[in-house]
Amino acid sequence: MARESRSVEGGRFLDLPGLRMHVVEAGSGTPVVLVHGFPQSSREWARVMPLIEPHARAIAPDLRGAGRSEAPDSPYRLDTMCGDLVELLDALGIERAVVVGHDIGALGALALAMEHPERVSHLVVLSVPPMYVKLSPALLRSVRHLWFQYALAVPGLGERLLGGGEQRLPHWLFSTFAVHGGPTERDREAYVARLREPDRARAASRTYRQLVVPEFLRIVRGGYRDRLPTMPTLVLFGADDPVVPRSALEGLDRLAPSMRVDEVPGAGHWVVDEAPAEVARRILEFAELAPTA
């Protein structure tokens, strides 16, 4: 049984095996787990959770190394993230949940759905191509926007780029991939401030080295093409996201009868921040948790 304590900033801490995790919750009923992206935290969902709360139980954890969760000197692989999510569900007594992931968090959500499909009733993937996407010229063209991932994966260099000096790279990420503002200045500073902590900069660099880059190479080699989802799956992206062009997702919804692909007009990569009401509406409607408009 996980031990818990309260957070001075709201939420609570759960002492999971190998990780002290911070989690924010609101509402009751069907659990909806909201997994943030990089370099964000559970704070990413602050304007989405109040919209989900009247209809379901919203749960937003800080991933290992992010937000107020611990940043242990440990592996940061995909199976690590997936394991942390399983431990979270177990600690909260949740057998099955709607799981929503954005950016890197979407990779963890996808892994949970592939490795433990009995724990996921509905899967929502935001702002990344699913792992079973087919390699295409459009997808390869989008890779030019991801050069920074390889820099962040380099030991030593990644930590300096994230936490050193004026931290231009984290600020660049927020400004480059947004269309209508993205995270607020206050939120950006909160995210960037965490990266000034050496253990968190190390954790972020290790995440790119052990998770993002290896998983991208596995996707390119077709390592997940036989791992199609069995549960209803929604792939949702900002229509103006340079990382996920619509052309890269052509035909994806024909791979499995349970899959839908849709876009949010006028939004970029930070779709949760740019269109929180629309994202919340799509989640609730897809998971059949609220009446459709």
Characterization of this structure:
It is a single chain. The protein is α/β, with parallel strands linked by helices and 293 residues long. The protein has a single domain (3-286), classed as Alpha/Beta hydrolase fold, catalytic domain (Rossmann fold, 3-Layer(aba) Sandwich), CATH 3.40.50.1820. 37% of the residues lie in helices and 18% in strands. It has helices spanning 49-52, 78-91, 104-115, 137-142, 147-152, 157-163, 168-176, 185-195, 198-220, 271-274, 276-286; strands at 3-6, 12-16, 19-26, 31-35, 57-61, 97-102, 120-126, 233-238, 259-264. A nine-stranded mixed sheet has the order 1-2-3-5-4-6-7-8-9, sandwiched between helices. Helix 2 (78-91) crosses helix 3 (104-115) and helix 6 (157-163) packs across helix 9. The model has no long low-confidence stretch (mean pLDDT 90).
Question: What is this structure's SSE topology?
Answer:
Elements (H helix, E strand, L loop, with lengths): L2 E4 L5 E5 L2 E8 L4 E5 L13 H4 L4 E5 L16 H14 L5 E6 L1 H12 L4 E7 L10 H6 L4 H6 L4 H7 L4 H9 L8 H11 L2 H23 L12 E6 L20 E6 L6 H4 L1 H11 L7
Parallel strand pairs: 4-5, 4-6, 6-7, 7-8, 8-9
Antiparallel strand pairs: 1-2, 2-3, 3-5
